[in-house]
Amino acid sequence: MYVNARLLKTIKVGASKVEGHYGHHAITFDQAGRYAFWSEPGTGLVKALSLETLQPVGEFSVPGVPTKVIAVGQQDRGD
């Protein structure tokens, strides 16, 4: 069985800063599948996206050029 993908939403992202093999955007997901985090090398930001609402929920300014993103752990849910 084949399933076709469909576009749910378009999200505007900041600039890349490509030099050789570096400076491309990167994305990763938290362990619980609730958030995505992507890098914006050209702006020096890492942004967070709610996978429930598909809306950006935060941004973090980082030093240097963020080109790789690793998510460790997840939000404390208090279960």
What does this structure look like?
There is one protein chain. By secondary structure, the protein is mainly beta. It has strands spanning about 25-30, 35-40, 45-50, 55-60. It has a four-stranded antiparallel beta sheet with strand order 1-2-3-4, with no helix packed on it. A hairpin with a 4-residue loop joins strand 2 (about 35-40) and strand 3. The model has no long low-confidence stretch (mean pLDDT about 85).
Uncertain stretches of 5 or more adjacent residues: none
Distance between the termini: 38 Å
Shape: globular
Number of E strands: 4
How many helices does DSSP assign? 0
Sequence of secondary-structure elements? EEEE
Structure in a nutshell:
The protein is mainly beta and 79 residues long. It is built from no helices and four strands.
Summarize this structure as a short list of keywords or feature phrases.
mainly beta; globular; 4 strands; 79 residues
Q: What's the helix and strand layout?
A:
Elements: E1 27-29, E2 35-40, E3 45-50, E4 56-61
Antiparallel strand pairs: 1-2, 2-3, 3-4
